[in-house]
Amino acid sequence: MTDLTDLTIAEALSAMKSKKISAEELTKAYIKKTEEGRKYNAYVLETPEVALQAAKVADENYAKGTERALEGIPMGIKDLFCTKGIRTTACSHIIDNFVPQYESTVTQNLLNAGVGFLGKLNMDEFAMGGSNETSYFGPVINPWSKDVDLVPGGSSGGSAAAVAAKMCAAATGTDTGGSIRQPAAFCGITGIKPTYGRCSRYGIMAFASSLDQAGPMAKDVKDCALLLNVMAGHDEKDSTSSRKDVPDFTKVLGQDVKGLKIGIPQEYRPQGLNKEIEQAWDKAIAMLKERGAEIVDISLPHTKYALPVYYIIAPAEASSNLARYDGVRFGERVDGAHLDDLYINTRTQGFGKEVKRRIMVGTYVLSAGYYDAYYVKAQKVRRLIQNDFKNAFEKCDVILTPTSPTEAFPIGDKTMVENPINMYLNDVFTVSVNLAGLPALSLPIGLSAKGLPLGMQLIGKAFDEETVFKTAYALEQDAAFKRI
Amino acid sequence: MAVDSKTVQKVALLAKLKVDDDKVEATKDEFNKILKWIEQLDEVETQGVEPLVSVNEEHLVCREDKVTDGNIKDEILANAPESEFGYFAVPKVVE
Questions:
Q1: Fewer Cβ neighbours under 10 Å: the N or C end of chain A?
Q2: Residue of chain B whose alpha carbon sits nearest to that of A333
Q3: Which CATH class is domain A4-253?
Q4: For A403-415, what is the mean pLDDT?
Q5: B81 interfacial to chain A (CB closer than 8 Å)
Q6: Strand ranges across the sheet with A261-265
Q7: What is the pTM of this model?
Q8: In-domain check, residue B92
Q9: Model ipTM value
Q10: Quick check: is B32 in a domain?
Q11: Chain A neighbours among B 39-78 (CB < 8 Å)?
Q12: DSSP string of A329-342?
């Protein structure tokens, strides 16, 4: 019998519907892979009993013919999503004993569709990082690693590694500056950050509220579409979640891309861009051209300012959001003689280095006397970045770029450890999208000379995930990327 | 705008964090490196540009002002490091 964990979600759903396999068999296969793959450190909490209970319900529903959209699909959940009764930590020591008494809307939507949860997935602490190395639970190993242990990317590193190593059928991720797309690229899987507002942020521990967005990470484009169908939608509990209708994203898959205008931003091809990344990009351009798409040169002139804008706005919002971790209502407490000492001791010992660094930067840029010079200035340049995209989309339907300027790098890489800015630069192709609130997908396009996956990014107009999915599906057919 | 050691300690205090005395210098240097990097925004002409606070272009809708849940004291206190008589407990604040 073939390995059930090779099946995509679409294939598994069809196999369960036709009673070729049961949800229990599928779930057990993933649990086995999860146990075998512990060396990757992708899960920070395994919940096989929860997944098996869901599988039991799923099999009953299949027997009765009352199966739901994702009935019996076992998933891993990034540890930033609150899951009722299941420990949720944001991979931070400050909250590592937290058991939510409520369910995040996105995970509730998945539960309502029949998904079972295999466990909680490792990530950078509070989603702050691009390599999963800031996690309190230690780094995740990229399943594509050969001689040296490589990072899976971040912050959704556990999610990407678990999907790549077939330790779950798919995973949830969140993306504030590239945290779904960059790890997807590093691990050779597909992930989409939807338009800001597509998915409710309720119950997702907040990092930077004006940028955070949840999305699916899966084996292929179709699975991402199936998942987003379920995850997206308006939620009364998040006033920023959109009231727009959620289309069936799978409907556009396989549609012709002939005549589609593909924008290629010149600013994403700087001097000294990694040759292999550039070649992969040219290959993707050629594939779409071959299918009759029209290639259009576009300009996003404020691209180089996206990272500095991001590293003002994201820490500013984070410093405010993370003020709630004070040792009083939940999480760790380190006692002190006075209340102020309790706050300071709790936060100093509870947060990791990178999180403290960002809280400090955020506090500084918001402090009296600097607010206008840094924060308001960044918001103004953010407007210019959004305008760049608006102008570009008058000339094209979707934008194609590499996802990351590098392939996966080694754990503990010196240039990254010694200078945080080098790590920040890894988000150079992804952050603008969050600042503008647009949807963007990363899919694997091929392998580097070292045999590591390279990702391509497709950026769409706000609420036009459909064009992104359609184009990605076409590229996926041509790339014929081989998963692990 | 480079910061000095005093500012680093002041910012830490505002954020309710403590920077150990032997780490202040290193923290200051790192801080200044990041600030110098983000200050490249000064090159951008932004006169007359409206700050972008949120990308959400839909109007926020006012909901009816009514209680939708409640009576969940035990759930609220379930994760408290310390609680007493149905309240969160903290060290004495008033001497």
A1: N
A2: B81
A3: alpha beta
A4: 95
A5: yes
A6: A43-46, A116-121, A74-78, A170-175, A213-218, A190-193, A440-447, A453-460, A398-402, A261-265, A294-298
A7: 0.97
A8: no
A9: 0.95
A10: yes
A11: 39-42, 44, 46, 49-58, 60-61, 63, 72, 75-76, 78
A12: SSS-----SSHHHH
